[in-house]
């Protein structure tokens, strides 16, 4: 039986926990102004948990969402003085490779594809460029699972682990 090399997979839960503890500035690519869209809900949750969100969406560039200025691109946000550590992408899988190079240029540490979004080519490019790559995971759900927030601003799915981390 051959093992999959560790660097070609999403970081394990302990590594994801460390990412969410270490990095507090999250660019949300594809953030919607529609409060019923998942990206908006995630942004509300992250703000409530003390994270600095940086909205990225060319459709709303120059406007504000959740009290934060919206930027057309990661580069524009960085040029405006925003610090970005995690790039959380709410886009179709085929649209994700374009963000690898930009994430590296702005000094991001993590490229994170939301729940249901998988792109192995994006992952390969991201890891080769030195980024931590997470795919098919929701930042909000991961945070809630690790820090006990599944009962607030979200679902109550019951016990996830038998003990708190």
TrEMBL record:
Please report the stretch or stretches of sequence annotated as the CoA-binding domain: 19-117
UniProt-listed Pfam families: CoA_binding_2
InterPro entries under this entry? Answer: CoA-bd, NAD(P)-bd_dom_sf
Which protein, by its recorded name, is this?
CoA-binding protein
> Origin organism of this chain?
Dictyobacter alpinus
